[in-house]
Amino acid sequence: MNSSMDVLDHVRLNFSPSGLLFLNIALAFIMFGVALGIKLSDFKDIIQKPKSAITGIIAQFLLLPLLTFVLVLVLKPIPTIALGMILVASCPGGNISNFMSSMAKGNAALSVSLTAFATLSAIFMTPLNFAIWGNFYVKFYNNQSAQALLRPLEIDQYQMFETVFILLGIPVILGILFASRFPMTTKKIIKPLRTASLLFFIVMVIAMLSANFSHFMNFIHLVFFIVLLHNALALGTGFAFSTLMRRPKFDRRAITIETGIQNSGLALALMFNPKIFPPELELGGMAVIAAWWGIWHILSGLVMAGLWARKPIMA
Fold it and tell me: Cys-Cys crosslink for 294: which of 26, 91, 230, 264, Cβ 3.0 to 4.6 Å?
């Protein structure tokens, strides 16, 4: 198993400049679509129901990265898989979490509020969490060869902040401004645009995999259960912490889904940015983890939402 993992670590993924451009455009389009549904009034839940909102924020940005770090120490995967898990956990919620919360008969308004807050704060929190827990991982990992590999992964935090702002901040700001300036047009296009965003995300993942399909199929068995456990940890973190905080079931469903659905597309875009991760680095494990996350969390989220949809609850 370890030797196979080592091979995965050295897989060189094919991703052309045009492919990277498509990836970035796809992510920007998705985030613009998400932002069309964000209004300043959506933040009222954070003010009016602060306990549920704060519970979701803590689960997303504090507990999930922390517990991911613990899971990495327990599983002891190869360094690139470990860092891939930490990077995914540092990303904000995925763009389909609001749809899934609504489908699950949960608190959709709370879900929108959490998505809005997470998307905006991720400009700072994603680089910060990755820097903190990535560095902790380097310090806890005693294998000298891993240390040699990890040394060049000391990220230029300014560059990462800049990239996240371009990929998330600008599309989100434009989306919010567009929705504010053209409310009637936004009302007409928001539903088809959200559908298009979901399809665009799927196409984005397929495009990333198409040039590397043989690698993906050869190594998917090595990361399948790791991603399953990691995603279960994310969903379980949201559910357990919101239960511990005695949040109503209505809110609990939204918090669970918000914590368990991650923006792995952002993780992929960061991984393939040569200014953050130089092309000479061998990041096969990171990319395969993020790509499979992009597929798996849609499946697990839809299953969970479908099960909850059969048990409607009162707010």
Answer: 264
Please state, in angstroms and rounded to a whole number, the distance separating the CA atoms of residues 303 and 306. Answer: 5
Distance, CA of 46 to CA of 110 (rounded, Å): 8
Residue 193, pLDDT > 60, answer yes
> Each residue of 118-165: pLDDT tens digit?
877 888 888 889 888 988 887 777 555 445 544 444 555 666 677 777
- For residue 128, the tally of other CB atoms under 10 A from its CB is 18
DSSP state letters, 90-138: HS-B-TTHHHHHHHTTS-HHHHHHHHHHHHHHHHHHHHHHHHHHHHHHH
- The ranges assigned to domains in the chain are 13-309
Q: How many CB atoms lie within 10 A of CB 131?
A: 17
Return d(Cα 119, Cα 252) in angstroms, integer.
20
In 10 A of CB 194, how many CB atoms? 19
Task: Give the DSSP letter of residue 262.
Answer: B
